[in-house]
From TrEMBL:
Any Pfam family hit: FemAB_like
High-level lineage: Bacteria, Pseudomonadati, Pseudomonadota, Betaproteobacteria, Burkholderiales
Domain of life: Bacteria
InterPro entries reported in the protein's UniProt record: Acyl_CoA_acyltransferase, FemAB-like
The protein's name in its UniProt record: GNAT family N-acetyltransferase
SUPFAM superfamilies per UniProt: Acyl-CoA N-acyltransferases (Nat)
């Protein structure tokens, strides 16, 4: 594949792979380890599991087109890339753009997407040894989109280095808001009670009340980390996870086989809370871990029996308590959810970058993003005024 807009196109060897397993795992992970904002979700084993488990494949609307760039036979840049024929599982919403294309008699799908499927966790997306290689990745994506007649290319939940590179390349930038908890600095919270003491009185009382509801319902929690999570635990978790989708009349994005791959290849990155009542499991919450950076990520949950406030306990209070006890510095609560603020998770801007092939639509989207960006700024300012912590 040729790359438009590069000074020395012959120096860059560009390949596109329809299966991430065809890429050398050690070389890929070396780029991850060198990234300024690495996460477990960009590791070769995680991305391969999404493909091997039939979770992110052509049949589900995620056709892998992983992009790798070599220089002097050394891997210098790479990114997970997918041809998408829908916008599900992305958490950065562009349905209105697709509708506008359709109303104009144009085709929006398939589009080109660099993201971790079903995983709205900010981090490095454009894996590169240096800024020049990162820039070449973006140009290669543009060239791929042009050569295949695609409407657009997108990079979701990118880090600051990726954001700067995209802006320099002329891509349009977009912001959204998530809610993250951070351990107090410089002196971390001593325990959960210490964390509660930092909150305003009404917020503290609300959390204490919600936790009491769960205790009085006779619910206790079992915690397992890494290889402590048994096959039976994974089976029960998946039953809960699938039930949550069923209750919303939807289908799970991830297959049971995906979690089997996680248990085998990346067990150290998982924390499971199982809620039991009278000894019987009734709910589960799965948290992803980055032990090296001390970050935890709220991922999946499900319940088989209704208990007041059980979701808050399983998805926020148990994980936060565990993070404090184990010296973790950050807990990311996932996409959206303004209600998380009352539980100590504060607004954080996340970013995406977008390139549209049609100049007319690019201009219209740029104007829309300028208005949306101003709204996001006002929204974050409003949220900051509702800070749940003591002044």
């Amino acid at each position: 594949m040729s790359i438009d807009g590069t000074r020395d196109p012959e120096a860059w060897a560009v390949q596109v792979h329809a299966d991430p397993a065809l890429i050398d795992a050690q070389a890929w992970d070396a780029l991850v380890d060198a990234s300024p904002a690495q996460t477990p979700f960009m590791r070769h084993a995680y991305l391969c599991a999404l493909h091997a488990s039939a979770s992110a494949v052509s049949g589900t609307g995620w056709a892998p087109q992983f992009l790798v760039i070599e220089r002097d036979e050394v891997l210098v840049a790479a990114c997970p890339l997918y041809l998408k024929n829908h916008s599900y599982g992305e958490y950065v919403f562009d349905w209105a753009w697709a509708q506008a294309y359709e109303e104009a008699g144009l085709r929006y799908y398939p589009k080109l997407l660099s993201a971790v499927p079903f995983t709205p966790v900010p981090g490095s997306r454009l894996l590169a040894r240096d800024p020049a290689a990162r820039s070449v990745l973006l140009r290669a994506m543009e060239s791929f989109a042009r050569q295949h007649g695609l409407s657009s290319a997108h990079v979701l939940f990118l880090d600051e280095a990726d954001r700067s590179a995209a802006e320099a390349a002329g891509w349009m930038l977009r912001s959204t808001v998530q809610f993250h908890w951070t351990n107090r600095a410089p002196a971390a919270y001593a325990d959960f009670a210490d964390f509660l003491a930092s909150l305003q009185r009404d917020k503290r009382k609300k959390i204490q009340q919600e936790r009491r509801y769960v205790r009085e319902a006779g619910v206790e929690f079992e915690t397992r980390v890494g290889t402590q999570i048994r096959a039976a635990d994974w089976d029960f978790f998946y039953r809960c996870y699938r039930n949550t989708y069923r209750e919303h009349r939807s289908t799970p994005y991830l297959t049971r086989d995906f979690f089997a791959h996680m248990a085998e290849s990346l067990p150290q990155h998982w924390l499971l809370f199982t809620a039991r009542r009278e000894g019987e499991p009734i709910a589960a919450s799965l948290i992803a871990l980055d032990p090296e950076r001390g970050h935890a990520y709220g991922r999946y949950w499900g319940a088989l029996a209704p208990v007041s406030c059980l979701h808050f306990e399983a998805c926020y209070y148990q994980p936060l308590q565990w993070c404090i006890e184990n010296g973790y510095r950050r807990f990311e609560g996932g996409a959206q959810g303004e209600h998380k603020m009352a539980r100590g998770l504060m607004p954080v801007r996340t970013h995406s970058a977008h390139w549209l092939s049609d100049a007319r639509f690019a201009d219209a989207v740029a104007r829309y993003l300028a208005r949306e960006g101003a709204g996001i700024e006002a929204y974050v300012d409003e949220l900051d005024e509702r800070n749940p912590f003591k002044r």
